[in-house]
């Protein structure tokens, strides 16, 4: 049975690397872990800046999240974006639910599910994202994959189904410093680059997590770089 | 498109097929007065095991171990389960986040010898 699992994992990785997917906007974002901690509450700030031939796109998110059971966390986001014209403003609202489908370490891999709904601030445009979160530990390293289906609909856009895959391979070096490689695929986008993350513990359940990644687009554009940064305070 | 859907399908199939392995050895730990008993757990290398932790205190605790890559809330007067392994031989520390000075322990992973069944 193990051979089948390993073969499936290899095919999956090959699929991610060679395939192209569709998803609008900035495809680089957080790679979600499937695990949830009971009683978890958090404040989060994310920044993504993409520089390509068309100029600079900047997105920032502020979020509050709270675990409402042992295996479910709800998070609400306010999204601000700067477009190609240089205007930065409130762009969207988002509500996200993440389920932990298996106890960490119980199965061959850890599994989770994601459900996200986003509404544009000034338009009746919606985006529904759902998908599977996968994580597999190999001694001091962890492979995390998010395979997502995105459906967009509304008055000002063409209704369409999109797909997105995010991958992170992390080396748990020390709590404060964990290097990783991240791969993202979105609409006409394949990107890869180094990532770094870490955490600092305070008293009790309080801790500060940070993540940073620099993703180079492999789409053929002369310039396509994305910097992402996230900081999260758990309490 | 086809390949992307293929990726999602493979993940879904593996998720559905992923079931718990048959027999997993259990190791009991008690948390009392913010101390783990026993504080040293010996387990065999290369095997998945289940830690059964009973929190006898009136307050919650949070089991935390960076080396084991585990974090779990231990609710008061309740029993919690933590699966660890398969691990390489070595010492893996854990602690309680709410009482890090007293609630401390370690998992000692021993190389398996022929014929050995249970190391704890």
From TrEMBL, chain A:
Protein name listed in UniProt: Copper resistance protein B
Lineage of producing organism: Bacteria, Pseudomonadati, Pseudomonadota, Gammaproteobacteria, Alteromonadales
Automatic annotation (TrEMBL), chain B:
Span of the signal peptide: 1-22
Lineage top rank: taxon: Bacteria
Domain EfeO-type cupredoxin-like residue range list: 7-109
InterPro entries named among the record's database cross-references: Cupredoxin, EfeO_Cupredoxin
Cross-referenced SUPFAM superfamilies: Cupredoxins
The entry's keywords: Signal
Keyword Signal recorded: yes
Keyword Signal: yes
Record protein name field: Cupredoxin domain-containing protein
